[in-house]
Amino acid sequence: MNRRASSRPPRIVRIIPLLAGIAVLSYFDAAGKPGSNGGQLLELLVGFVLLVVGLVLAGPWFTTAGSRLMVKRASRPASLIAGRRLLDNPKAAFRFISGLVIALFVASALIGALSSIAFVNSSGGGSAGKGTLAEPFCSFSMSNCPAAAQVPSVPGPVLAELHATPGVSGLAVVHQVPPGQEANWGGPAGVVACGQLAKTPAIGKCAPGATVASIGYFLSNLLGHNSHASSTAWPSAHLSVANAARLPVDAVVVATDGSSRSLERVRTTLERAFPFQGAPLGVESLDPSNARLLTMIQDMTDAIIVASLIIAACSLAVNIAAGLGERKRPFSLLRLTGVSLGVLRRVVALESAMPLLLVAAVSIVVGLVAAALYLNSQVGIAFRIPGIAYWATVIGGLAASLAIIASTFPLLNRMTGPEVARNE
């Protein structure tokens, strides 16, 4: 008679890549935002790849830890039998849900980041942004502009006309950073007098004591450099107001009361004064995380979460059916000894649900932590826990997954009848 030997339990070294990925993101968070796109790419590639690989490698170890806890705290036969079964081969139990790890991690990180950005836009620059227009000149950096397209200064009559427009509450002229000093701002940026910035709160405010701010101009959001919000306190540019005013113009930002009349009059004035530049845009429309894009991405991510959970549950259901075929005689013997069918159902449910729920929880937590670290270090946005819609999606997906697992219970009754226990 062949005796089946238990596999070697996974060692704790499997969680080292996972901890290393968190450490990489934490290092960038503590050190501050990298000064170049290369630094940002390095953080993304190294940190997130380590997290994905670490989750896949650590999955069997987490399954083993959960199984040991189940056995230790078992108060009923079903928990003890299921825990012992999982401890016998945790790698096989995790294999059928390994794809869930990557999907839930990516989806949770994405939704965590988008939710935080959406909150900043709605509570920070959102209300002010609705009544703020910006006329961006050339591209994201004046170094890419032909000389004929550069705007050395805004004519005085244009400024006077804008100030005199009914509904206009403030105006800020964003100037190009001094030539050769772009690297000090980590890419496309500008400088603006703090007196003007105070009247256009949609694009931030000055740090205490500053007279000229080094503003990570919000158009660079499209390149993933910065985020803007009225709560952003831009650092001092170490320039005098007079010297900043002599620099070429990067953009003109006009704050209004948000009425359609004032917005149209400001737009007309800017288009007439700068006919060869792009059309004036609302500050909100310059934001890469506008409401429509956020909603679209969040809906897609919610669908990924539900689909991933259901696919993982289907894999588990196939595994359950195969496992019942292998264990139909032992289960039949248990039924002959007086073990009820309900106990066997709980055994099967615990064997399947415990790895699914545990891996889902770990993936979600790691994804949200990664989003928090990246937002803080790269974008400068405080992380916020996703709203009830996200958690409702996760709970709904898990409920559907458990329902698929429960759909295999009728097989248990048919495959473990007394006739199966007869001697061959």
What does this structure look like?
This protein is of the alpha+beta class and 424 residues long. It folds into 2 domains: 12-123 and 294-421, no CATH class; 138-276, no CATH class. It contains 14 helices and 8 strands. The chain has helices at residues 16-31, 37-72, 77-88, 90-95, 98-129, 156-164, 194-197, 241-245, 260-273, 283-286, 291-336, 341-379, 388-406, 409-415; strands at 132-136, 168-176, 190-193, 205-206, 212-215, 233-234, 249-256, 281-282. It has a 6-stranded antiparallel sheet. Helix 1 packs parallel to helix 12 (341-379), helix 2 crosses helix 3 (77-88) and helix 2 (37-72) packs across helix 5. The two termini are 14 Å apart.
Topology at a glance:
Blueprint (H helix, E strand, L loop, with lengths): L15 H16 L5 H36 L4 H12 L1 H6 L2 H32 L2 E5 L19 H9 L3 E9 L13 E4 H4 L7 E2 L5 E4 L17 E2 L6 H5 L3 E8 L3 H14 L7 E2 H4 L4 H46 L4 H39 L8 H19 L2 H7 L9
Parallel strand pairs: 4-6
Antiparallel strand pairs: 1-7, 1-8, 2-3, 2-7, 3-5
Helix pairs in contact: 1-2, 1-12, 2-3, 2-5, 2-12, 3-12, 5-11, 5-12, 11-12, 11-13, 12-13
Main sheet strand line-up: 5-3-2-7-1-8
> Unreliable stretches, pLDDT < 50, 5 or more residues?
34-38, 139-143, 217-230
Helix content: 55-70%
**Average of per-residue pLDDT values:** 75
End-to-end separation in angstroms reads: 14 Å
Quote the beta fraction: 5-15%
Number of helices: 14
Shape: elongated
